[in-house]
Amino acid sequence: MIALVDCNNFYVSCERVFAPRLEGQAVGVLSNNDGCVVARSQEIKNLGVAMGMPAHQIDPYIRRQCTLLSSNYALYGDMSSRVTDVLSQHTPHVDVYSIDEAFLSFEGFEPTTLEERCQMMRQQVRRDTGIPVSVGLSTSKTLAKIANHRSKKESMFNGVAIMHPDSDDTRAFLEQLPVNEIWGVAGRSAARLHTLGIENAWQLRTASPKHLRRHFSVVMERLVYELRGESCISLGDLSQPKQQIMVSRSFGRLTTSKTDLREALRVHASRAGEKLRKQNGLAQAIMVFVHTNRFRQDLPSYSKRLVIPLPHPTDDSRELIKAAMAGLERIYKKDIWYQKCGVMLLDLCDHDNEQLGLLAEPISDEKRERNKRLMETLDKLNREHGKHTVRIGMPRKQNAWELRCEHRSPRYTTRWEELAVAKT
After folding, report:
1. Where along the chain do its domains lie?
2. What is the pLDDT of residues 233-290, one digit of tens each?
3. Higher pLDDT, 39 or 360
4. What angle do CA 155, 92, 277 make, to 5 degrees?
5. Which one of 3.40.640.10, 1.25.40.10, 3.40.50.1390, 3.30.1490.100 gives the CATH number of domain 245-385?
6. 121: nearest Cα among 100, 104, 144
7. What is the CATH code for 1-163+405-424?
8. Residue 351: pLDDT band with limits 50, 70, 90
9. 290-297: which pairs have CB atoms within 8 A and are 24 or more residues apart?
10. CB 41, CB 23: distance < 8 Å
11. Which end of the chain is more exposed for a tag (fewer CB within 10 A), N or C?
């Protein structure tokens, strides 16, 4: 059996662990620069605040009933690791899917004991971390995902739902589940399935796998078997390497300073290089872009982007930064109030398919290996000791491009100076 463990309203739950006064209150967590609502408690959902709603568009009457907090990703990431540590005590097979979800394999466990085991696991996670979780169980990841959804919505399951693939209950639920709500079926795929007369999960389950493979891909074929209870999809099937990598962010305040833009682009290019190395890729070009706030009619409008070919395919953050700086020099204009800048890595390939152009700058094997070891060391230090432990260049304090997070809670678990204080 496979279980999907999902943390309930994860960002809000993390905030409530250290601020119990928020229990029962309408709480929302905002995106970068305190822009839009990206996480909601049930109470704020009930008030009609939609996911992605800009904070300034919330009705003042409703706003007075809410607590809106800035994103605290350091806290959320650490709490996610703590939840995973507890889950690992119940089975050695834990496959983290996202910051608030993980698949667990209970292969070899007695099936009749799994519901009780998962209830005990839920109780331990709540006791040790303060985070409430829901569990869905079935014989495939897709059905476990659907079961998890039911465990949250249907109170009779008490947080743990089991879906046996051939039961009448499973069939009845799949017959009323729209195909676009199935894990791995995007909107465009759902529209194409509708043209084939497939509108719900049961119709997809009973469709011909080979026929769907001809119209879609092997992933859709496997999805049919998954709905039948056969485990055949890996997480890699649903998270293919990206063909482009973009890193950008709006500034905390507008700026005309080229130094601010340079520092921001340096951070963005470094982050893009880290993402590129994570998927074992190489970039052959980088696009740099800047733009102003289009809603400020009182300021000159400016938007510019430029693609810089790289001398050779690379994942070295230093080379990406160097190219980004060269691009900025060509698109920067004085006396313009910039709101955002960023980079996009283009023409990605993996290491095994690297192709050098006829005019590409040759690199010795020794230098290539030295650069590789340097980047691996950089990533390892930041992974083990925290983000930005080692970085290329140091930013100034109070710069314009730092995020605006006026309502962020303390980073209780990762900063000594922000530890929770107990009072008697």
Report:
1. 1-163+405-424, 164-240, 245-385
2. 765 555 555 678 888 888 878 888 888 899 999 989 999 999 999 888 888 889 899 9
3. 39
4. 100
5. 3.30.1490.100
6. 104
7. 3.30.70.270
8. low
9. 290/261, 290/328, 290/331, 290/332, 290/338, 290/340, 290/341, 291/338, 291/339, 291/340, 291/341, 292/254, 292/336, 292/337, 292/338, 292/339, 293/254, 293/337, 293/339, 296/254, 296/337
10. no
11. C
CATH entry, 164-240, from 3.10.450.50, 3.30.565.10, 1.10.150.20, 1.20.140.10? 1.10.150.20
Residue type, 311: P
**How crowded is the C-beta side of 65, counted as CA atoms within 13 Å?**
14
Q: Is the pLDDT of residue 33 over 80?
A: no
Band (401; pLDDT cuts 50, 70, 90): low
State how far the Cα of 370 lies from the Cα of 362, in Å rounded to an integer: 15
End-to-end distance of the chain based on CA atoms, in angstroms?
Answer: 47
More confident residue, 338 or 385: 338
Pull the structure tokens for residue 310.
Answer: 């790289």
For residue 409, what are the CA distances in angstroms to 17, 18, 419? Answer: 12, 9, 11
